[in-house]
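Board notes (copied after class):
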Amino acid sequence: MPYFPYILQSTVNQKFYIGSSEDPKRRLLYHNSIEKGVTARYRPWNLVFVKEFPSKYLAQKAECKIKSWKSKLMIKRLIHGKITL
């Protein structure tokens, strides 16, 4: 079953949230609907990046790689297709 790392961007302050899911669109709805938690205070979110991987393991590995960058510039380059996973 395919699995997807994804990046959300807040329309409030342009912050990024990085995660992975088997259904990124459903996760976006969840992040935009929750009342508590890390993503609640920065709603609404837009899905700005998603990439399909053949397994949960590989998707989560890609998610960890993105998180390890700790750089908005690198994340923006990924979103705009200037670098790849």
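Comment from the instructor: DSSP finds three helices and three strands in the chain. The first strand starts at residue 4 and ends at 10.
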